[in-house]
C-alpha cells in the first residue's frame, strides 16, 4: 500500500465499513469512502517511506482542491497545507542546488560525493527545515553544513568557489532560483486573493517565472559541461519546479493541465535519469547515483503517478458523482508534514540495497542494474544476448525460459560474463 491513513480509517477499511477509492483503471487512490453511502469521508495522511523530491501533500488534498464551487473560504481552508507544500519545494531546491557548490563541474572524488549522498542530502534538508541552516540566494553555507566532514571537504568547497567554470554555473543557478523564489511569492499571494480572475492572473504570472526558471535549469550547454552527479542535481531542481508548475494549474482548477504536466514530469524523470546513468564514468559516481535514483524510481515516481491518477479520476466523475464529492466533508490535512516525513534513517534502505549488491557485481554490471531500475525494458536486450550466448557456450541452463523470476543482479552479471568471454575470444 502506498498510502498511510488515519487509525480510524484503517479500522474501517479492515472491517469493510470503508473502502479505498479505486480509479476506473483499477488504481487505488488516496481517498476512502463510506461503503454504504459512497461519500468520501477522508484521505491519506501520508505515504509509506520518504520520497526524495515528491511532496505527498499535493495528492492528499487534491480532492478538496477541486471543490471550488463551495466558495473561496471552503476551498482555501487548506491554505496552510498548500503553503507548507510550497515551502517544502523551496527548501528542496535550495538544498539540491547548494550541493553543486561541492560537486562542481568536472571529476569528483568519492569522498566528496559521499558528503552529499542520499543520506547526507536528507540530513541537510532536515537541517534547513528545522532552521539550523539558511538558504540564501539559492545556496546554503556548505562550510557550516559540512564542518564535521573533514579538511578535504572544506578544501574542495574552496576549490569549487575559485573555479571559473563553476562560477558561470553558479550565476545561472542563482538567476534560476531567484525566478523560482519570486514565482513562489506570487503563488502565496494568489492564495490570499478572493477574486477568481485576479487570482488566476497572478498564478499565470507565477507560471511564466517557473517556465523561465525551468529553461535555466535545463539549459543544454551547462548540463553538458557537468559530471553525472552535477547533472543529476540540476535536473532534480527542475523536477521540483515541474511539481510547482503542476500545483499552479491545480490551484486554477485545470485538471487536464495538471495531468499533462505530471505525465510530462514522469517521462522527464525517466529520460533524465537514464541520461545521468549513461554519463556515469566511475565506481565513485555510481556509489552516489545508485541509491538516490533507486529511491526516486521506487518512491517518488509512484507518488507523482498517484497524483496524476487522482486528477484523472476526478475528471471521469459524472455530474452526480461530482456533486457527491462536493458534498463530502473531507477533513483538512494538517499543515505540518511530520506524519509524512519521518526522521532521517541512519542508513537509507536504498543504500543498504546497493551495499548488498556491490560485493556480488562489478562496476559495469551494477551500472546496468541501475539502468534496469530506471528503464526496465532495457533488460530485454541483455536477456536476448544471454539466450544467444549460453547455448553457443554449452551452458544452456544459463538461458532460462522464464526471465521474470530472474533478478536484475543475475541478468546483468550473466550478460557481462558472456560479454567478457566473447571479447577474450575475439
Describe the protein.
- The chain is mostly helical and 426 residues long.
- The chain has two domains: 57-343, no CATH class; 361-425, no CATH class.
- 65% of the residues lie in helices and 5% in strands.
- It is built from 21 helices and five strands.
- Strands 2-3-4 form a three-stranded antiparallel beta sheet.
- A hairpin with a 5-residue loop joins β3 (28-34) and β4 (40-43).
- α5 runs antiparallel to α14 and α15 packs antiparallel against α16 (283-316).
- The chain is globular and about 70 Å long.
- It starts with a strand and ends with a helix.
- Residues 66-75 and 335-342 have low confidence and may be disordered.
Provide the descriptors you would attach to this structure in a database record:
426 residues, mainly alpha, 2 domains, 3-stranded antiparallel beta sheet, two-stranded antiparallel sheet, 5 strands, globular
SSE layout and pairing:
Blueprint: E1 3-4, H1 7-15, E2 18-22, E3 28-34, E4 40-43, E5 46-47, H2 57-60, H3 62-65, H4 72-75, H5 79-98, H6 100-103, H7 110-114, H8 118-129, H9 142-145, H10 151-161, H11 164-190, H12 196-217, H13 220-224, H14 228-251, H15 255-279, H16 283-316, H17 319-327, H18 349-357, H19 363-374, H20 379-392, H21 408-425
Antiparallel strand pairs: 1-5, 2-3, 3-4
Helix pairs in contact: 5-8, 5-11, 5-14, 11-12, 12-14, 14-15, 15-16, 15-19, 16-18, 16-19, 19-21, 20-21
Count of beta strands: 5
Main sheet: strand order: 2-3-4
The overall average pLDDT, rounded, is 87
Let me know the largest β-sheet.
Answer: 3 strands, antiparallel
Q: What percent of residues adopt helix (DSSP H or I)?
A: 55-70%
Strand content: under 5%
Amino acid at each position: 500500500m502506498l498510502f498511510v491513513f488515519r487509525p480510524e480509517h484503517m479500522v474501517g477499511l479492515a472491517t469493510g465499513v470503508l473502502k479505498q477509492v479505486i480509479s476506473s483503471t483499477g488504481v487505488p487512490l488516496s481517498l476512502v469512502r463510506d461503503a454504504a453511502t459512497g461519500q468520501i469521508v477522508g484521505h491519506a495522511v501520508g505515504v509509506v517511506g520518504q520520497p526524495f523530491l515528491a511532496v505527498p501533500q499535493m495528492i492528499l488534498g487534491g480532492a478538496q482542491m477541486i471543490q471550488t464551487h463551495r466558495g473561496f473560504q471552503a476551498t482555501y481552508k487548506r491554505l496552510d497545507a498548500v503553503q507548507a507544500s510550497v515551502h517544502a519545494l523551496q527548501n528542496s531546491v535550495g538544498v539540491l542546488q547548494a550541493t553543486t557548490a561541492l560537486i562542481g563541474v568536472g571529476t569528483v572524488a568519492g569522498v566528496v560525493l559521499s558528503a552529499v549522498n542520499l543520506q547526507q542530502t536528507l540530513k541537510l534538508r532536515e537541517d534547513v527545515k528545522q532552521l539550523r541552516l539558511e538558504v540564501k540566494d539559492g545556496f546554503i553555507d556548505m562550510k557550516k553544513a559540512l564542518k564535521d566532514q573533514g579538511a578535504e571537504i572544506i578544501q574542495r568547497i574552496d576549490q569549487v568557489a575559485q573555479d571559473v567554470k563553476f562560477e558561470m554555473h553558479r550565476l545561472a543557478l542563482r538567476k534560476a532560483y531567484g525566478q523560482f523564489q519570486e514565482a513562489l511569492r506570487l503563488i502565496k499571494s494568489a492564495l490570499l486573493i478572493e477574486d477568481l480572475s485576479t487570482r488566476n492572473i497572478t498564478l499565470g504570472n507565477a507560471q511564466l517565472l517557473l517556465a523561465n526558471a525551468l529553461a535555466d535549469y535545463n539549459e543544454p550547454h551547462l548540463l553538458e559541461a557537468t559530471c553525472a552527479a552535477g547533472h543529476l542535481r540540476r535536473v532534480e531542481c527542475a523536477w521540483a519546479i515541474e511539481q510547482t508548475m503542476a500545483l499552479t494549474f491545480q490551484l486554477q482548477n485545470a485538471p487536464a493541465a495538471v495531468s499533462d504536466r505530471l505525465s510530462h514530469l514522469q517521462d522527464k524523470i525517466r529520460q533524465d535519469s537514464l541520461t545521468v546513468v549513461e554519463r556515469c564514468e566511475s565506481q565513485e559516481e555510481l556509489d552516489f547515483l545508485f541509491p538516490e535514483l533507486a529511491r526516486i524510481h521506487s518512491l517518488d515516481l509512484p507518488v507523482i503517478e498517484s497524483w496524476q491518477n487522482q486528477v484523472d479520476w476526478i475528471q471521469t466523475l459524472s455530474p452526480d458523482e461530482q456533486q457527491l464529492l462536493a458534498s463530502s466533508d473531507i477533513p483538512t490535512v494538517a499543515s505540518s508534514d511530520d506524519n509524512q516525513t519521518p526522521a532521517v534513517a541512519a542508513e537509507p534502505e536504498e543504500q543498504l540495497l546497493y551495499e548488498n549488491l556491490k560485493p556480488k557485481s562489478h562496476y559495469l554490471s551494477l551500472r546496468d542494474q541501475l539502468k534496469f531500475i530506471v528503464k526496465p525494458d532495457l533488460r530485454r536486450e541483455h536477456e536476448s544476448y544471454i539466450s544467444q550466448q549460453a547455448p553457443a557456450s554449452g551452458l544452456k541452463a544459463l538461458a532460462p525460459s522464464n526471465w521474470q523470476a530472474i533478478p536484475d543482479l543475475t541478468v546483468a552479471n550473466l550478460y557481462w560474463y558472456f560479454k567478457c568471454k566473447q571479447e577474450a575470444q575475439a
